[in-house]
Design goal:
This protein is an alpha+beta fold. The protein is built from ten helices and five strands. The chain has a five-stranded antiparallel beta sheet with strand order 2-1-5-4-3, with helices on both faces. Strand 4 (115-123) and strand 5 (126-135) form a beta hairpin. The longest helix has 26 residues, at 172-197. The chain is globular, with a radius of gyration of 18 Å.
C-alpha cells in the first residue's frame, strides 16, 4: 500500500473547511482512492436521502454504479444490509453456492465482480450510507485492508457531518439530498458528452471532472453548464459568455 497516497487521502477527506466544498468530488475522491489503496476493481458510495432510503451517490466506474443501482431496485445486496445493520458485510465469493443474495450475486458476477465488501459510513449510532468495494477475484480483503477501508469510510463520514455543521442552516438530510441532486445533473452531462464524442461514460466523466479541476470550478457547475449549453463543443463556454 502506498503510504504517501494513504496519508494524502486522509488529508483530502478531512479537509472540508475549504470554500466551495464540492460534495460530489469529495465522494469520488473516496471511491477512486479506495480502489487504488485497497487493490479493488471498483468502488461505490450509497447515501441515505431525507426519507432514509439509499441512493447511489458516487461510483468509480459505470459498472459499479449500475450494480449499486441494481441493489436498490431489487431491494437486495450487501450495501442494503450494511446500511440497515451499521455493520460491515462481506461476500468473499459471489460465484459460490447458497448465495445469501442470489439476484445480486448473479448480476455482480455478470458485471465481472466476484467479491464485495460493504463498509458502513457511520458516526456512533448515525449511519448515513455505505462504501462498497468490488473485486474481480474471489477472496476476502485482509484484516489490515479492511481496517483501512473502514477508516476511509469513517473519515469521509466525519467530513460530511463536519460540512453540515459548517453550514449551520442545513440539515444532514438536506446536504445529502443536494449531493444526490447534483449527481443527476452529472449523469445527464456524462450522457450528453459521451454521445457527442462517441466515448464511454467513464471516459466522459473523466473529461468533466478533469476540466472542473483545471478550470477551478465545481464539478456540478461544469456539468450543469454543459447540460444547459446549446453548443455541442466541450468544454462549454462560461455562463457570462452564454448570456451575451
Amino acid at each position: 500500500m502506498d503510504a504517501q497516497l494513504l496519508s494524502d487521502t486522509f488529508v483530502d477527506l478531512a479537509d472540508t473547511m475549504v470554500a466551495d466544498f464540492d460534495v460530489i468530488d469529495f465522494l469520488h475522491i473516496l471511491t477512486d482512492r479506495s480502489v487504488t489503496l485497497l487493490s479493488a476493481s471498483a468502488a461505490g458510495v450509497m447515501l441515505a436521502d431525507p426519507r432514509g432510503e439509499l441512493r447511489v451517490a458516487a461510483a468509480s466506474s459505470e459498472a459499479a454504479g449500475l450494480i449499486e443501482l441494481f441493489q436498490i431496485q431489487n431491494d437486495q445486496g450487501l450495501c442494503l444490509d450494511c446500511f440497515r445493520t451499521g455493520q460491515p458485510v462481506t461476500a468473499a465469493d459471489l460465484g459460490g453456492p447458497d448465495q445469501q443474495w442470489p439476484q445480486f450475486a448473479a448480476a455482480a458476477a455478470q458485471a465481472g465482480f466476484r467479491a464485495v465488501e460493504a463498509l458502513p459510513m457511520r458516526l456512533r449510532d448515525q449511519v448515513i450510507g455505505a462504501l462498497n468495494l468490488f473485486r474481480a477475484g474471489p477472496g476476502p480483503l485482509s484484516p489490515a485492508d479492511l481496517r483501512v477501508g473502514q477508516a476511509l469510510a469513517d473519515v469521509a463520514t466525519i467530513g460530511l457531518l463536519q460540512e453540515r455543521n459548517v453550514r449551520r442552516g442545513e440539515t444532514i438530510a438536506e446536504q445529502l439530498q443536494a449531493a444526490l441532486n447534483s449527481r443527476v445533473v452529472i449523469e445527464q452531462a456524462k450522457g450528453k458528452l459521451a454521445e457527442r464524442l462517441s466515448i464511454g461514460m467513464d471516459e466522459a466523466f473523466g473529461l468533466l471532472r478533469g476540466y472542473a479541476r483545471t478550470s477551478n470550478q465545481r464539478l456540478t457547475d461544469v456539468a450543469r453548464n454543459f447540460v444547459d449549453s446549446a453548443t455541442a463543443d466541450f468544454p462549454p463556454p462560461p455562463r457570462e459568455q452564454q448570456r451575451r
